[in-house]
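Inputs:
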Amino acid sequence: MNYSTELIKGTLKTIILKLLADNKKMYGYEITQKVKELTLDRIQITEGALYPTLHALEADKLVTTETEYIGKRIRKYYSLSPTGKAQAREKVKELASFMDTMISLLDIKPKMT
Amino acid sequence: MYSLSEQHIDFILADINARGIRLESLQCDLLDHICVIIEQKLEKEEDFESCYEATIRAFYQQELREIEEETIFLLACRNRLTLSRNQFFLLLFAIFIGPFVSYDLAWLVTSGPTAGWNIPIHIWAPTVVYSLFPLLILLVLLLTPERLDPLIPAKSKILLGIRPFIKIIPYPFPRI
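Outputs:
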């Protein structure tokens, strides 16, 4: 099952912040692949959504960047700033609380695994 | 692992630029992303040009510059005062109507007993006229693209003006 763009867009910041919290530094392609891998291809972040969000996070000083030359091209690694780390925790907490509320609101029975 | 040549990298960078990506930082991100994908695909012996076309096509819906437009939009939103429509109108009415109503009330309090509580036209007419200003701004809001809905439209700032504030200062401005 693939999720709607609205759902993914609404949670993209949280996804990125959490991934960067769990992995010291990541570059754009790596983030998309990690999300695919962790969600078994159910969530595929598009480049059109990823980079504007990363740049907004950078402008908000939640992530910092460092560059590395790969031959002639530059690879930008993104990592969390101290503010970003706190924000990541807060965002995950907020999303978890939101999901609990939705489960209760929509009367969703948790799946038995 | 397959590695793209410098000519290929120059070609991709020039193409990204030609497709409207002007932000250097975004160019770096996209160039690296595209290169990684192509290098993986070319390991399976594909032709560079067709591989590049297929790869770049997956990056956008209409045009590649959508990514830059979205980036600029998100960056611009950070620096803008964002208000919900309700907050916006509350503020707007407070700014526009507040001074006029206060002025009318002040006039009534100070001149009421001697003027017989009849508000002269030069007092109530501007109140009525300027109270229509928010309706003009509502029009601007309705014409604002949906995605900018929660933002104060730039054009409404022109409508805001300073006229209502001048009106409540009696000197040196003559009364209408």
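Remarks. Chain B touches chain A through 29 residues (CB under 8 Å). Residues 85-115 of chain B form the longest helix (31 residues).
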